[in-house]
Task: structure prediction
Amino acid sequence: MRVIAGSARRLLLKTVEGMDTRPTTDRTKETLFNMLQPQIGDCKFLDLFSGSGAIGIEALSRGAAMAVMIENNPKAIECIRENLERTKLEDRALVMNCDVLAGLKKLEGRNYKFDMVFMDPPYGHGHERLVLEYLAHSAMVTEDTVFIIEASRETEFDWLKDYGYHMIKSKEYKTNKHVFAGRGE
Result:
């Protein structure tokens, strides 16, 4: 796995050993960031269920002003920190070692306003729904915040409207998909 573009282009990233994380493939990451590129410059990026940190690091490499990465696996946190050091992007990153919802609660009141929220939760557990329910009432996101959820192809998102979101688009790959959502109508 590597950084696709930007200031850390071509640098190899360490991944977490074992089956606890599913690193986003370089091809999928490239497709995702090609779609996000017009909005990534100077944005504030929130990377939830960060794994190796590859998504947040890609955002930083491509010009995001800052990235907050929340992950609860200590081995993954070590991997994120090593990858940030390797890419020399640690000065624009905040890494939090905790459960995602606990991390979001810790961030409240710190004047963060995120332009993009990316999450790649474990599939089939409904974590994306809990996170979006929490963020629906958070001051950390605005009407312009873009939410990107990586999920299995089978995951349904017909509940988005129940929490005040709408689907912008969905991009399907062989085994998973990226769902882009916004707040409001």
